[in-house]
Design brief:
Elements: H1 2-15, E1 18-28, E2 33-38, E3 40-43, E4 47-52, E5 55-60, E6 64-65, E7 74-77, E8 81-85, E9 96-101, H2 104-109
């Protein structure tokens, strides 16, 4: 059916506009924050998607601190770990991958 084909095309094109940015190392349920082992650059204001076995969650990255609890605006990439505030709808994360949504311009550069 055309609807199924369209859904496939949507998810296929959407995946090309994201980049794997990090892996959840720890989840703090009291503060609703996750420790991310950064693989590719993350910046405050990025639109991100957290992929978990319980489902996917899209949100804007609003707060990030380093391992010393100091606020940071950017985690440049591999070798960095940061705590991020998660969307309030996320109650538990056992395993999770964080992807950053790319802008149209950045997606076209790939």
């Amino acid at each position: 059916a055309p609807e199924e084909t369209q859904r496939y095309r949507d998810s296929s094109s959407r995946s090309q506009r994201q980049i794997f940015s990090g892996e959840v190392m720890k989840f703090d349920s009291e503060t609703n924050r996750a420790l991310i082992d950064v693989k590719n650059k993350l910046t405050i204001g990025d639109e991100v998607e957290l992929l978990t076995s319980e489902g996917n969650h899209s949100f804007t990255l609003t707060s990030m601190t380093n391992r010393h609890n100091e606020p940071v605006n950017c985690a440049p990439g591999s070798g960095h770990q940061v705590w991020i505030d998660l969307d309030k709808n996320i109650k538990e994360v056992k395993l999770g991958l964080l992807c950053r949504n790319l802008t149209e311009e950045a997606a076209q550069l790939d």
